[in-house]
Amino acid sequence: MSDKKVEDLDRNSKAELICVYASLLLHDEKLEVSADHLKKLIETSGNGKNVDSFWPSLFAKSLKGKKIDDFLGGGSAPAGGAAQSASAPVQAKVEAKVVEKEAPKEEEEDVDMGGLFDF
Question: Whole-prediction pTM value?
Fold first, then answer.
């Protein structure tokens, strides 16, 4: 879905995207992601006509009891957990790039080309 423009999405994909954004907004504001809150937010944002009535309930039920931070990568993984070991190579690459950028570049020495370009 990320390679398409929003206006090119079909009706169900748009509704799903709207519900995702509404859920994230409610979560960010530390509000319960309930069907009522989703409906109010979707209506207030002017997207009510784009979302069938079952979508907010579907999202609220599917997210009930879940920690949204875990979906976003903000949850804490146990030490030595899969999430930690999976991110270790990525973290190492990022740190290597930072060190690479911070390392002072050595000045190149002038090399005598022995009249290579003398004509």
Answer: 0.57
